[in-house]
Design a protein that fits this description.
The chain is an alpha+beta fold. 32% of the residues lie in helices and 28% in strands. The strands form six sheets. It has a five-stranded parallel β-sheet with strand order 3-2-1-4-5, with helices on both faces. The longest helix has 21 residues, at 234-254. The protein binds adenosine monophosphate (AMP) and glycine. Adenosine monophosphate (AMP) binds next to strand 7, strand 8, strand 9 and strand 17.
Length: 415
């Protein structure tokens, strides 16, 4: 089977690595890519959010399946364009991708589906939102649309909340704002492969969103992740499948927009039970990197089953042990990443997988070309063992001002 994979991140590098293990794969081509992907697979530069451009490339390659990694092409309707052209695609159509593209839409679907979530109010008017936020105080302010991880502020008090409303209101995605009850508890990510009707659950995983150790510093796209996350046990995972994933699938089907692809529920485990904070309509980054190392299934078969509506409902098989992925980020990340620094030591890594994100080849050199540069992933029987390997290998890699957290997977314990 000839497959086209869309994306440029370490998530896509991990997906390519896993797809390549499928006996059914004959050729994998990447739309987008980076230096790591280009080392092994042909990479083609196309505008990833353009349906016509992706369709043209898929046709040229005679691709039998297109796997879409990031959210932006999904929200932009690239899956719709491929379907209309008769090309099988893994990933939801735009009407279903609104679960991530609009937080207000996600809340409506949660309400209809009776999915447990934080109390919320929606505002079109900035000044009314600011007044309500000021009165509410400890509240979470969210821009309605896609904001690349910059659309959420957790406020401590009234003045902070009102300031957050005004700041987010200036974003293109901030024309509508959501105010949300502030919840507490550990966070966990649950992802399910979905074929519209049935779902197959990946183990729970956890990412580390803050830049610095002990969850200090600014929010980022994610500084590392581990899987399985013991904070959610097998029964808890099943309950999320039943009470969240299954219900959303039914609502989406009833609305005439069945959800096909990966549905990602970002959850907070509150004292009152799990609450959904957000949906994503694709695999998480960096969670996918350790998840792909754990997954003991044929990823290509899974993607095809979703695209064809023939998924077998189950909990997916995983290897024993755990995986930990440590993100190495550029200096200046997340505010203002400095790019173009030479990366050394990549060839000396052993016993770990290095998935590339913001990297680019420049002659003989590989240089940084994005905020998150690499994810170093290792498996082990225990978190300690996996961490030891990941960190020993990460330490062999060098670039100017390289930043990484030293505590990825350290807090992993049963809830
Ligand atoms: P989201 O993009 O909606 O997942 O929000 C990003 C981050 O903001 C989450 O990972 C949480 O850490 C935090 N957050 C979002 N919603 C809430 C909430 N209702 N209560 C507390 N923290 C939240
Ligand atoms: N790791 C969170 C996300 O992919 O959105």
């Amino acid at each position: 089977m000839k497959v086209l994979l869309l994306g440029t991140g370490a998530r896509e590098h991990a997906l390519a690595w896993k797809l390549q293990q499928s006996p059914r794969l004959t050729r994998l081509t990447v739309a987008g890519g980076n230096a790591g992907l280009a080392q092994r697979w042909e990479c083609r530069a196309v505008p990833l959010d353009s349906g016509p451009a992706v369709v043209a490339l898929a046709r040229e390659l005679a691709a039998e399946l297109v796997v879409i990694g990031p959210e932006a092409p999904l929200v932009a309707g690239v899956a719709d364009a491929l379907k209309a052209a008769g090309i099988a695609v893994f990933g939801p159509v735009a009407a279903a991708a609104r679960l991530e593209g609009s937080k207000a839409f996600a809340k409506e679907v949660m309400e209809k589906s009776q999915v447990p979530t934080a109390r919320w109010e929606l505002f079109d008017d900035l000044e009314r939102a600011a007044a309500r936020a000021e009165a509410w105080g400890a509240v979470v302010v969210k821009a309605d649309g896609l904001a690349a991880g910059k659309g959420v502020v957790v406020a401590d008090d009234g003045p902070q909340a009102a300031a957050a409303v005004r700041a987010l209101g200036t974003l293109p995605s901030g024309k509508r704002l959501l105010l949300e009850e502030r919840l507490t508890g550990p966070e966990v990510s649950v992802m399910a492969f979905c074929d519209g009707e049935r779902y197959a659950l990946l183990p729970a995983s956890q990412d580390h969103k803050r830049l610095l150790d002990a969850d200090l510093g600014p929010n980022t796209g994610g500084m590392g992740a581990y899987a399985p996350a013991p904070v959610l046990d097998a029964r808890g995972l099943e309950a999320v499948g039943r009470d969240v994933i299954a219900r959303v699938l039914r609502t989406m089907t009833a609305a005439g927009t069945p959800f096909q692809g990966v549905l990602y529920a970002g959850l907070m485990l509150t004292p009152q039970g799990p609450r959904v904070l957000e949906f994503n309509v694709r695999l998480g980054d960096p969670e996918t990197q350790p998840l792909m190392m754990q997954l003991d299934e044929d990823l290509l078969e899974l993607c095809v089953a979703c695209a064809e509506g023939k998924l077998e409902a189950r909990t997916l098989k995983v290897h024993s042990g755990v995986s930990v992925g440590v993100v190495l980020a550029a200096r200046g990340y997340p505010e203002k990443p400095v790019l173009g620094d030479e990366i050394s030591g990549l060839e000396s890594v052993t016993g770990a997988q290095v998935f590339h994100a913001g990297t680019r080849r420049e002659g003989e050199k590989v240089v940084t070309s994005g905020g998150r540069v690499l994810t170093v992933c290792a498996r082990g029987d225990t978190f300690e063992a996996a961490r030891d390997v990941a960190y020993a290998q990460a330490a062999k890699i060098r670039f100017e001002g390289m930043q990484y957290r030293r505590d990825i997977g350290k807090g992993a314990r049963p809830g």
